[in-house]
Design brief:
By secondary structure, the protein is α/β, with parallel strands linked by helices. It is 31% helix and 24% strand. The protein contains 6 helices and 10 strands. The strands form 2 sheets. A 5-stranded antiparallel sheet has the order 2-1-4-5-6, with helices on one face. It has a 5-stranded parallel sheet with strand order 7-8-9-3-10, with helices on both faces. A hairpin with a 2-residue loop joins strand 5 and strand 6.
Length: 218
Amino acid sequence: MTPGDPGGAFLRVEGLSFRYGRSAPPVLRDFSLAMGEGEVVGLAGASGCGKTTLLRLIAGLERPLRGTIKIDGLIVAGPDRFVPPESRRVGMLFQDYGLFPHLTVAANIAFGLHRLARAERKRCVAEMLELIRMPELARRHPYELSGGQQQRVALARALAPRPKLLLLDEPFSNLDAGLRASIRGEVREIISSSAATCLLVSHDKADLEAVCGRIVAQ
C-alpha cells in the first residue's frame, strides 16, 4: 500500500476491540480515531477506561481482538496483519517514564539508537539534550534529577529514533501541582520543535488543554 490515507489521516484506528483474557470484560469496544500528520491530539477519559491499552495497541505491545490500525496509510494491525513494535516507528512515553537507573542521561537517550554508527548516535544524543535544554546534565543518573527533568529525558529518549508517531501516557501524573504548569509548557514546546504527530492520553483535561490542539473523549 502506498503511504497516505485517502481521508487525510496519518493515524487511523477503526473498530478496535480488546480484552485481557477470554473471560474478561472488554477494555475497548469498537473504538475509532483519526489524526492528521503533525497533529497533537489529547484523549480524555477516566482511569480504567482503556486509554493506556489503546496506546499499547497502537505501539504494537498488544494485539487487537478486532479492528485495524493504520499509520501513514500502512496497516500495522488487522485481521491478517500484525507489524511488530520495532517496525512501526512509534515512540512511547510510559506513565512511570521507564528510565534505566544505572544509565546516565545520555545513555538513556541513546538506548534505542544502537543501529546508528557511533558518531551519528553521539550527534543525535547531543541534539536531544539541546532540545530538552539539559546538555550540562548528560552524565547524571535519573536519581539525581527532579521529576520534571526525568520526564524530559524520557521524552527525549522517545523522540531520539525519529518516530513517525509519539504516544504519551499520562505524562504529568507523577508531578506535583506546583510543577505541572511549567512542565506542560515545556512539553508543548518540545513536541512542537520536533514536529511530531502526537497522541496524549490523560484523565486531567487541564493537561490536555495546555498541550494539545484537539481533544477527543474516550
